[in-house]
Amino acid sequence: MKRLALSAALLLTLSACATTSDIEATRYQIDQVNRQANARLTEVESKLSNEKLLEMVNQVESLKAEVAKLRGEVEVANYNLQTTQKRQNDLYNDLDGRLSHLESAGKEAAAQQAASQPASSQPAAATDTQTSPDYDKALNLLRARDFPKATAALSLYIQQNPNAPQAVDALYWLGVAHTAQRQYDAAIEIHRRFAEQYPDNPKAPDALRNVANCQRDLGQVDIAKATLKRLIKLYPSSSAAQKAREQLTKM
C-alpha cells in the first residue's frame, strides 16, 4: 500500500514537471511570435512612413513647380502689359505729334496762300484753304482720344466727301483711330489700301509702318518683318524707314 502511494506521488510529480516545461516552451514560442510580429509591424510602419514622406516630398515639389509656373505667367503678363502700355503711349505721342504738325502746316500754308493773293481775291483764297468743319470736328475727337466717335466722324466724312482734299488724310487718320482701339484687322486693311492707292503721299511710309505694328500685335511677327522690309525698300530715306530699321533689330 505504501509502495502504491509512493508511485502515485512520483507520477504526479513527473506529470507536474512535464506541464511546467510545456508551459515554458509555449511561453517562449509566444515571445518569439511577439518579437517577429513587433519587428514586422515596425518594418511596415517604417515603410508606410517612408512612403508618406515620399508622397509629401512629391506634393511639395509639385506645388513648387506650380508656383514657379504661376510666377512665370505673372511675369509674362506684366511684361505684356508694360509692352502694351508702352506701345499705346507711343501711339498717343505719335498721334499728338502728327496732329500738331498737321495744324502747323495747315496754318502756314493758309498764311502763305493769303499773302500771295491780291487783296481783292483774299477772301476767296481763304475759303479754298479752309478745312471742312466736319473734318476739323473729327480731328478734334481724335486729338481728344475719343476714338470711337472719331472713327464714326471720319467714316462719315469720307462717305459724304469722297473727293474732298481732306478725304485722303481722313482715310489715314481713320486707320489710326482703329489702331488705337486695337481693331487691328480694320486698321491693316485701311492703311494697306492707303499705301497702295496713294504711294506718293507723305503719310504712305507711316501707313506701312502702322500695318507692320498691327501685324506684330496680332502675333504675325514674320509678316510684320516683311512689311517693315518693304517699307525700307520703298521709302529708304523716310523717318518711318529709320524707325522700321530700329524695330527690326528688336524683333
Protein topology:
Elements lengths: L1 H115 L5 H8 L3 H11 L3 H14 L6 H14 L3 H14 L6 H14 L3 H14 L4 H12 L1
How would you sum up this structure, described in words?
The chain is an all-alpha fold. Helix content is 86%, strand content 0%. The termini are far apart. 19% of the residues are buried.
On the 0 to 100 scale, the average pLDDT is 80
Q: How would you classify the quaternary structure?
A: single chain
Dominant shape: rod-shaped
Structural class: mainly alpha
Compute the separation of the termini in Å: 124 Å
Salient structural properties:
251 residues; mainly alpha; 9 helices
Tell me briefly what this model is:
Helices cover 86% and strands 0% of the residues. By secondary structure, it is mostly helical.
